[in-house]
Amino acid sequence: MEIGLMFAILGAALAIGGGGIGSSMGVGIAGEIAAGVVAEDPEKFGKTLLLQALPGTQGIYGFLVAFWVILKVNLLGGVLPVSPEAGLQILFACLPMAIGGLISGIYQGKVAAAGIAMVGRKPDEVGKGLIFAAMVETYAVLGLLMSILLLMNIQL
Q1: DSSP state letter for 123
Q2: Domain count within the chain
Q3: 48: domain range?
Q4: Residue 113 belongs to domain with CATH number
Q5: Contacts of 58 (CB under 8 A, 6+ apart)
Q6: Which of these, 68, 67, 57, 49, lies nearest to 19 by C-alpha position?
Q7: In the chain, how many H helices and how many E strands?
Q8: Which long-range contacts (CB under 8 A, 24 or more apart) does 151-154 make?
Q9: pLDDT (tens digit, 9 = 90+) per residue, 59-97?
């Protein structure tokens, strides 16, 4: 396998890996608190589930960036030749999503967990908890957009 293609695949793997790790950690952090709240009051399951699921989006965004790379190098068909320079460009273009997804997923999980604790005490405040967690989501979306914008103009 040529080095340029290896760099491109590494970029895709980092994007999906960073987003996936961030999401799984964030969902796990929020899920721990949600389990405690639901154990006390099973009626709060729906409200806590929504907050717990929110950090899962970083994994989806990482998947989108990785899929974009797969399409760009035609990995599902006859693989296009990728120069070492283009491979490195693809690798670096994937880093905003990889790093942003990892970090924002973890912190969104922490904010979502705080929102879940708030719902445990004041169930009608779920909207405020969602807004707090959605603020962190902004940075995952920015990482996604930056990675896609960078990938768009890379010439193989």
Answers
A1: G
A2: 1
A3: 3-74+83-152
A4: 1.20.120.610
A5: 18, 19, 20, 22, 23, 26, 100, 101, 102, 104, 105, 108, 140
A6: 57
A7: 5, 0
A8: 151/65, 151/68, 151/69, 151/72, 151/90, 151/93, 151/94, 154/72, 154/86, 154/89, 154/90, 154/93
A9: 999 999 999 999 999 998 888 899 999 999 999 999 999
